[in-house]
Amino acid sequence: MAAKIHVFVVVYPVQGHINPMLQFSKRLASKNVRVTLITTSSYKNLNDNQPSNPTVFFDYISDGFSGEKPPGIADFVETFKAESSRSLPELIEKQSKTEYPVNAIVYDSFMPWVLDISKEFGLYGVSFFTHSCAVSTIYYHTSKGSLKIPVEKGNVVSLPSIPPLEVCDLPSFVSDLDSYPGVLKLVLDRFSNFEGADCLFFNSFDKLEIEVVNWLSSKWKIMTIGPSVPSMFLDKRLADDRDYGLSLFKSDGEACIKWLDGKDTESVVYVSFGSLANLVQDYMDEIAWGLLNSKCSFLWIVRDTEKSKLSEKFLEEAADRGLIVNWCPQLEVLAHKAVGSFMTHCGWNSTLEALCLGVPMMVMPQWTDQTTNAKYIVDVWQTGVRVKAHDKESITREDITKSVKDVMEGTKRGDLKANALKLKEMALEAMSEGGSSDKYMDDFISQIVTRTTST
Ligand SMILES: O=c1ccn([C@@H]2O[C@H](COP(=O)(O)OP(=O)(O)O[C@H]3O[C@H](CO)[C@@H](O)[C@H](O)[C@H]3O)[C@@H](O)[C@H]2O)c(=O)[nH]1
């Protein structure tokens, strides 16, 4: 029966959302469900690596900008909402005339309007949260006013099932209301109609966030279906775990792996700030010289658009110890035996990937949910150290060097690594057959089957 089920997975078009929803789609497809991942046409031509026999199908909708840079987040969302509200129903109608009509829509929580479309067609509708359960819960309280904003500096925030948070541990859009009001609106709007969804998916797993998972599930039907990383880095169950090439950036994969192959076990610091961050010049300088002064080898992802921020002098001195590339296959890098630690901006995907591969972290959150993820990495899971203490104004090269030494060779390394390995085991257990995340996926499928056969 499951073979006849067809699920649309509708993604908000940014790299950090496409990656987990694509991995989720592959898992679902491996359970004999037909899955079509729908994203914007901007991702259409990237698919050079598209396998000839894909397990996941793709379809594309316009974001209304035909490749032009949108003026700002609010305009983008408004136009994208109008475009997708027109084109998504067309895709559903088109499918209804085939042997694979759509039964369910899993939509990015950034696109709450898709729930209205799924209801209009009588489909099972699921909101997929690409943030952690904790971060999503903080945004929930903000949207409902149970977390009063603005929060005054110096206050400690207490929310049910969340550890006490200093203001700088809150998501940046909440702690600094003037920073990105358009994005704050986007993340809070998710809660305008979420209670009408048949279920809420979180890219997390029960044991990772047990308190907050319990709190959420006492109120709503939630399923933690993560960590949404390729099977080959976890349970290795999916034979057809292909790279669909949905990356906005050109990867220097071969060069990275070859370079890592020549390094000693756990001797390299991997440094990346994800797909969105633009670091200011001073920050780049301090990282650069802090890494050099640590005397460790490092692989640093600096996107081509950011490379002019690296001085000639630094590049010369780094030549025999550092490799600086535009983009890499991050999971392969984290899984490489030469990598000993990860200096990270704490994007949720990077956080989960480091946990799944048992790699200790040096946390350097920049904005959005990263500040809260950093708090969990350092104080709750204890798999990383803070590069800069909360009470320090800005980061220095000495902070960088010290944190690298602490994590790579200090007395803390043993505990950090042991905690990271424990979480790696738990992540594996959750995704393996019969594990919590695996069971939720089965549960989701049987609910669609029941809904489909009873109508
Ligand atoms: O050289 C690289 C660098 C990154 N990645 C991948 O790119 C993704 C990056 O995702 P993430 O770590 O979450 O960072 P962002 O791209 O910054 O993601 C945005 O979206 C996330 C999910 O909502 C949020 O948690 C982040 O804060 C937000 O910045 C991960 O899957 C990485 O494996 C690569 O493959 N190669």
TrEMBL record:
Pfam families: UDPGT (PF00201). One of its GO terms (biological process) is terpene biosynthetic process. GO terms for molecular function: quercetin 3-O-glucosyltransferase activity; quercetin 7-O-glucosyltransferase activity. Keywords: Isoprene biosynthesis, Transferase. Coiled coil: none annotated. It comes from the Eukaryota. Pathway: Secondary metabolite biosynthesis; terpenoid biosynthesis. PANTHER family: GLUCOSYL/GLUCURONOSYL TRANSFERASES, UDP-GLYCOSYLTRANSFERASE 74E1-RELATED. Belongs to the UDP-glycosyltransferase family. This is Glycosyltransferase. It comes from Daucus carota subsp. sativus.
